[in-house]
Write a structure and sequence with these properties.
With about 475 residues, this protein is mainly alpha-helical. It contains 19 helices and no strands. It has one domain. The longest helix has about 45 residues. The chain is globular, with a radius of gyration of 22 Å.
Length: about 475
């Protein structure tokens, strides 16, 4: 770890350290949001709601690929940051190599499975006769590019673990820029529709992957793809996947929940699916900002937990909570103020746009509070509580949301599907807050002996309490 990276993790100015990690992560997550929205925005310019609905229907497949990426990136980020905090670079290199080769193998397997089971998968996802051909073409191309989608998204996260937030952001921006440039050319200029959108997405991820590979070769501290490092302890992949499981489960269940929602909404027509998809994309602005703050700061949590520094860890947690609260309020206000303009990017049909606006208004009731949920799951991961983090992550989009979709749709019809998201969010936030408090108490007890031991090694004259800004 070079001087600047070490200073980033060990600085006593906590706001500076947090913002140095969070701002690039936020930019990266917003770029990813723009990346995810680009396809639907340009497909929406065709005026064909069936194609817009097809992009939404295939969304869970994209989520599946992202879930596999997070299975490796989230766990790898926690372990590498913790190892660097404990000054164990050799172990960090082994973790990195295992993640890289795991990504290659899982990317190829994902492509084979998705393409091989495309027909039953699309029927399960809720395709209608008018959306099926569009959804099939879109999904097949995305699946073929799954290895690059998986590797580029994983590496974009792993770079943060060794403090290379700038390079991670540049790689993200480069891939997204390529995608956005190619989208209008393929979708509108060449008239390829969703096929063009899928090709642009894959090409963008290939470019990002090449950038990250170049970083690994030229600048990396511990990130590597050495087969010999991966072979030393291949069983480390299970530790990585255990810690990454909460993020993967959350992303995967989100995909399943959306597929169930699309199945229920298909009874109301493809326009209903398109309206919900557009509203969901806009709501992601708030969700991903809050997620980005917590994920961006997670390496700091892992590093200081690994170093046994309870005082810094406490200061970091307090500041992240404040940042999430303020950001939730501001982004909600912005989304509500500009919801009509945002919806018009996706939908040209005025009647469908009105429905989408009403959906956004309902989603705003719970989304601003999700920062507490993401802070809890990231803290549990960073401190090695993989099982607890997985349980909490499975609540919001799984154990709570999926049954609520069917129950509330049966009671309230179309809007019952939207109510389910709001109720599930609020319930998950309350449970996550309780889990955060319980586990914070455990961590304080765990690190207190370490802190006391560190105090004893100082002489009375040398020791002094530090005040973190």
């Amino acid at each position: 770890m070079n001087g600047k990276q070490k200073e980033l993790f060990e600085s006593n100015n906590l706001w500076k350290s947090i913002m140095s990690m969070v701002i690039p992560a936020l930019l990266a997550i917003l770029v990813m949001l723009l990346y995810n929205m680009a396809d639907m925005v340009f497909v929406g310019q065709t005026g064909d709601t069936a194609q817009v609905a097809a992009v939404s229907i295939v969304g869970p497949v994209f989520n599946l690929i992202m879930a596999v990426a997070m299975l490796l990136s989230a766990g790898g980020t926690v372990l590498i940051s913790k190892d660097l905090g404990a000054k164990d670079e050799e172990h960090a290199r082994q973790i990195s190599a295992v993640c890289m080769w795991g990504a290659v193998i899982l990317g190829i397997l994902s492509a084979i499975i998705i393409i091989g089971f495309s027909k039953p998968l699309l029927l399960f996802l809720g395709t209608t006769p008018d959306t099926y051909p569009f959804a099939k073409n879109y999904m097949t191309i995305l699946a073929a590019g799954a290895p690059f989608l998986l590797i580029s998204n994983m590496l974009g996260q792993l770079l943060r673990a060794e403090g290379a937030v700038k390079d991670g952001l540049i790689g993200n921006l480069t891939g997204t820029a390529v995608n956005i440039i190619l989208d209008p050319i393929f979708i509108l200029g060449l008239g390829m529709g969703v096929v063009g959108a899928a090709i642009a997405t894959v090409v963008g991820n290939i470019v990002a992957t090449l950038f990250y590979m170049r970083y690994m070769k030229k600048k990396a501290v511990v990130l590597n793809m050495s087969l010999s490092n991966a072979r030393k302890k291949p069983v480390l992949i299970f530790t990585v996947m255990a810690l990454g499981l909460p993020n993967a489960v959350s992303t995967m269940l989100s995909g399943f929940a959306n597929s169930f929602a699309n199945q229920l909404l298909s009874d109301y027509g493809s326009d209903s699916i398109a309206a919900n998809a557009a509203a969901g994309r806009i709501n992601q602005i708030i969700v991903m900002v809050l997620m980005g703050i917590c994920m961006g700061a997670q390496p700091l949590i892992s590093y200081n937990y690994g170093a046994g520094n309870l005082s810094k860890l406490s200061g970091i947690m307090k500041r992240i909570l404040i940042l999430c609260t303020v950001s939730g309020v501001i982004t909600t206000a912005l989304v509500i103020s500009f919801r009509s303009a945002a919806i018009s990017l996706f939908l040209k049909d005025a009647s469908v746009a009105v429905v989408a606006e009403s959906i956004i208004t309902l989603l705003m009731l719970s989304s601003p509070f999700l920062g507490l949920f993401y802070l809890s799951t990231n803290f549990l991961q960073a401190t090695g509580k993989a099982a607890s983090a997985t349980v909490i992550s499975s609540l919001q989009k799984g154990a709570l949301l999926i049954p609520l979709l069917f129950i509330l749709e049966a009671l309230f019809g179309f809007y019952g599907v939207i109510y389910a998201y709001v109720v599930a969010d609020f319930s998950a936030v309350v449970i996550a807050a309780i889990a955060l408090v319980i586990n914070w108490i455990k961590v304080k007890k765990e690190l207190k002996p370490v802190l006391n031991q560190n105090i004893k090694v100082h002489t009375k004259g040398d020791y002094r309490n530090e005040c973190y800004n």
